[in-house]
Amino acid sequence: MDIDNIESWPSITLEVEGPLVSHFFLLLQQGVTIRSRTGCSVASFLREEIGADIETIKRIQSVILDGSPVDDLESAVIKDGSVLALSAAMPGLVGATLRRGGTYSSFRSGITYHETQEECVRGEGLVQIKIFNLLMAELGPRLLQKGVIISSEDFIRFATGQSQDFWQGCRRITLDGKPLDAGELQDTAWLSGKGQIFLSVSSDKARA
Amino acid sequence: MDKILRIDMGADGGPKTSSVPLGQYAGFGGRAMTSAIVSKEVPPLCHPLGAENKLVIAPGLLSGTASAMSGRISVGGKSPLTGGIKEANSGGQPSQVLARLGYAAIVLEGKPKNNDLYKVFINKDGVKISVDNSLKMLPNYDLVAKMKAEYGEKICCISIGPAGEMKMASATVAFTDMELRPTRHAGRGGLGAVMGSKGVKVIVLDDTIVRGSTPGSPAVTMQMRVPKDPEKFKDANKRFVDGLKSHAVTGQGLPAYGTNVLTNILNEVGGYPTYNFKQGRFDGASKISGETQAETEKTRGANPTHGCHRGCVIQCSGTYNDKDGHYLTKQPEYETVWAHGGNCGISDLDKIAMMDFLDDNYGIDTIEMGATIAVAMDAGLAKFGDADAAIQMIHEVGKGTHLGRILGSGAAVTGKAYGVERVPVVKGQAMPAYDPRAVQGIGVTYATSPMGADHTAGYAVAQNVLKVGGDVNALKPEGQVELSRNLQIATAAIDSTGMCLFIAFAVLDQPDTFQALLDLLNSFYGMNLTADGVTDLGKKVLTMERDFNAKAGFTAAQDRLPEYFKSEKFAPHNVTFGVKDEDLDKVFNW
Ligand code: SF4
Fold first, then answer.
1. To test the ligand 1 pocket, which listed residue (B500, B501, B503, B507) has its Cβ within 8 A of the most ligand atoms?
2. How high is the ipTM of this complex?
3. Quick one: which of A186, B211, B266, B454 has the most CB atoms within 10 Å?
């Protein structure tokens, strides 16, 4: 994924009835990409890019950066190309093991995240975010409203999996700023092979 | 719960029952009860399917009371799979009902002299045992339907499927849920084969009594067991339930998604054993995650939040409907979805749900079966990802074909039969869904648990609550050994209460909830159990189990992971299991 081409990607916006935003949550568990500041700590990324407040951050019990559980949100650094996964508290001993800074963190010391970068290179880049379980409803609406990048194939799979009820609940759709009706978006053939698309979803939930 | 029901299946003239006082087993419940009876009464060198082995079924200490979460039931015996002592526990209705009927345990002893198949019926009036060969080779769902037709809807059942009758080492003992479906299983270790060797197909429990003397008076269930101090008990139960409901895992995460919520995160950290433990990530994980599963269930009109027995306030279970909206199976748990899913390279939730149903119906342990299919796939019997071939293998087991007999004997036997080196077992039992190279502390428990590789063995209460063995410096390497020890002690104790182990998450984080649990036990029995007492109980249980295994011929050599976990690097982190043998040998030094 090349940040220089970002302007050429199709941009789809949807304004949906509140409850329908949850239809997009399963995209979040697979991972969506955002254009964001890099070179900052995970803590400031969560606050400033994801919009998580202190209470929400407390509920983000497991933070996985590039496949490794993070214990210290202040020292781990977000870079261009990072993959950041977020989860609420998980069951089981393994769930407890993967919590940040928990009693059982030593159980997975072999895969724990250790920051190696001595100096932060501040800039802009693309970061993939995966949001799991209870956090999907908590962080999803705002993130989706801000806009995410997903592959056109993922969007086609999403669009073809939706019922008519969903499409009827879409109040306004635009493509590159121009209005589009739901039927045109359901016919996804034109999207095939487009690479990445920029998707923004707004709802009453995100505005609340 | 002041008596033990002993059924001698080998008695002259047919099975003989006796109801005896608790005696030396007073104060024991659940796992403490099964392990105490097995370690005292079963010769460790006996054949697991022989007359000398015993099958012990024991409700927990608080089963049958008004306490929340108290419906787990333990099954114990010498395991045909591991050759050592075994306790496997299950949810479902029978624990509550058996306890209300007054039994602290049922012990099946001896061995019938012929091939007749028996059913046992227990109600307030006593015990009836009868030959019923029409039940032969009935799968669990059909069997329960037949029992319902015969005894009515208020019963609950403890049963075996064809795998148990064929005495396969991966056979389960099934327990019916609130809807009278055989969806809950004491899965691990092949105890269904021990029940099969005793010739018992089903134990039907009925705790209804008729209220009133006029014809047509309603049948109601027996009263809850009465605590010594009802006020304190009520208060403790309220605090206990509040604690469970306020905790993020037991109050929100588990009810919303069930245990399968673990798939995404295990996959993300590269600890999700995939393609028979070859790598730690599965491309299809998001298709079979708890999030996807819950959404699928909701869309199809099933229920993703449901308890396995009355009195469960966490409700980690649910139901799973097929594409047409018809019930297919209960919500498959994380271990089942992993075993039949990522471990076999399968990412089709409907096919995985079908396998869950078939396992329940034939009475096969889902973890052992999934691990065995993956070993068979490694042997070339099918390709990874071929869900239809995997389903066919389960049918082979259910029908008892030659191939099915091998597969039904578990992963270790299948690996031997087909010359596969990568067989993820400890003490002959397949590992569950967490790779011990990525999460090494889990590997310590897999290696050393007297039960064989077991994910629930070290699942319970934090040492910072119990202070088992003093404070542990978790950052030192030896901390993993100490933590595993503490967890195994605490788990053994929780397993003895009859509480669902999932309470552990709330108890782990909230000392008040742990105190509420102690208060429940104390107010019910008029005891003064403290955290130290819980620790002593856990140690006692583990000591009994380790002694049994030592006499059965187990040495330190059995407390090891297979060699390849030390040499094969596990992607994406390229880690191997690094805990030294001499450290593993220290786990039970207390
Ligand atoms: S939490 Fe789950 S396993 Fe435990 S009792 Fe409730 S439904 Fe059963």
1. B500
2. 0.92
3. B266
